[in-house]
Structures are given as C-alpha cells and as structure tokens.
Amino acid sequence: MKKIILLLFVCFVFQLNYSQQTYTVNGETLELNTEIDGQLDLLWNIIDGKYRYFVRSEDGSVIELKNTKGSNNDYQEEYKSTLSNLTNGMSTDKLKLTLYSLRNYLDAYNASVDSNYNVVSSERSVQFRLGFSGGITNNPFVGNPDNKNTAMVGAELEIFEANVLPRHSGFLQARHTFDSDDFPYSTTELSIGYRYRFINKESFSIYGQVKLATLNFSNVTFADENDMEIDSSDTAFDIPFIFGVGSDIKVGDNSFITIIYGELFALLLDNQGNFSTDIAIGYKFNL
User: Fold this and answer.
1) Per-residue pLDDT tens digits for 199-229
2) Mind listing the domains of the chain with CATH numbers?
3) Computed from CA positions of residues 19, 23, 25, 28, in that sequence, does the dihedral angle turn out positive or negative?
C-alpha cells in the first residue's frame, strides 16, 4: 500500500496533448509540439532533457529561441531580440524563456495583428516545479541508539508565484527511508511545507524551509522478550514544524540541482539524542 501511495504521488503531473510534427532546423531533424498556431507559431519539445523553443513564421521558416552564455558566463538572451524583430518591436522586457511566458507573448502579438485569432493562453498566478532526490538520513526523530544512516529517496511538487523570481513557495513532498540490517526501520512520509529564499538570485538560491504537517506509514522489526522477531506497522499524523535548509542551483533554462538538509530540528518532535544527518541531492525542473 505504501508503495502505491508513493507511486501515485510521484506520477501526479498534468498531461496535455499537443500536435507533433517533424521539422528540420539548421540541419537537425526534430519532433516539435505546436503550442500556438497563428501568424507566429510557437513550437517546443524536451530534447535530451532540455526545453527547446522555436518560432515558425508565416513563410514557414523555423527559428530557434536561444539563451546562450557569453564569455563572462552571463546569459545573452538572444530570444528577446529574435522575437522583437519578428513582432515589429513588441516589448520583450519582461519576457522569460519559459513555455508560459512565450505563450502569453505570442498570444498577445497574434491577437494584435489578427482580429480573428483565438487567444490560447489564460492567465495563471502560480507555477509548478517537480523534483526528485536521494540521500541518507539517521531518522533524527526516531530512536536510533547506534546512530545508523539509511538511504532515502524523495519527490516533491513545489508551488510558487508565476512570472517572478520566487522568494516564497509551498511544497508537497513524498519520501521513503529504507530499512537496513543495522537499523530495521522504514517509513513513507507525505508532507506539506513552506520555503523562504533568503538568498534569491537567477543562478542560485538558498532557503529555509519548514514541514508543517506530515503523515507517516512506518514499519519496524524488533525482537520480543522470547527473541521472536516481530514486525510492527504504524500510521501517524503530526504537525511537527520540522526545519531545514537547502539550495537550488540553476543548470538550465528551467532546471536545477538541489541540495537539501531536510530535518535539522523540530519544534514539536523530540530529537532522539543524535545530531541530525538528513542530506539529499536531487534535480528539479519547471513544469
């Protein structure tokens, strides 16, 4: 049952159907989705793990929207000049190289030049980021007299305000800590929490977080007074206020490497005598 719950949570992403066609762009053959169909079309796909965006003009030319790094390691934002030229100087000051931002931009342009154009995009106030991670933990809030570390894996859906550099965010998280011969305790935890990025830059952020509520499905194996091996399962809901810190490091237009020290201390749970070891490394990407 625990594995089913974890799988359902990890697989909880929104799926959209797009028309997909084959294009040749600068000698490269690509399968691209059509997001916007108007005087300027928006095409995109995830290729080799990276989001790539293209514009198709009325004459059928397909141009890639790029954001490469220069010699000073700063992003050049070529996509802004490309789109400004194609839209007769329409402002790109607030434009980002994301599907949502490009869709709104080209929607606005197509509507301005074609009164019969049907607007596709709709305003939304939130954006989502999906992440996966793995690491080790000593289960700091569980009795662990020998201070043994065990492996853990996790997944989360982060929710934040769209079209800004997010400082505040909420998250839904699922993680599983495995048992071992030295420490026969495992748990699957579902939690909701809040993050605040006290260092918040385009290339990286450092944040504090708090888990506000948790639901744990735990299993432990122990020997009774007759040296019989007993398996015990438990389900527990808590409002523990577990604090941690983390960092997201940008490695692509919409992707990040994340490092998180997830369980430093808790206000409403007792530490069981061991300094917390709860460290994970993972990967996140914007949906």
Assistant:
1) 988 789 999 999 999 999 999 987 666 777 7
2) 19-113 (no CATH), 126-286 (2.40.160.20)
3) positive
Predicted local confidence at residue 98, as pLDDT: 86
Sheet holding 62-65, edge to edge: 19-25, 28-36, 41-47, 50-56, 62-65
User: Which tokens belong to 71?
Assistant: 């010699």
**Phi/psi at 201 (5° precision):** -120, 165
Q: Is 27 left (phi over 0), alpha (psi -120 to 50) or beta?
A: left
Residue whose token pair is 């989705």: 33
d(CA 53, CA 159): 23
Q: What are phi and psi of 2, to 5 degrees?
A: -60, -40
pTM score, two decimals?
0.58
Cβ-Cβ contacts under 8 Å for 44 (sequence gap 6 or more): 32, 33, 35, 51, 52, 53, 54, 99, 102
The model's pLDDT over 224-261, given as tens digits with 9 standing for 90+, comes to 667 777 788 999 999 999 999 999 999 988 899 999 99
Query: Distance from CA of residue 15 to its chain's centroid?
Result: 16
Give the C-alpha separation, 262 to 13, whole Å: 23
Residue 19 has which token pair?
């028309």
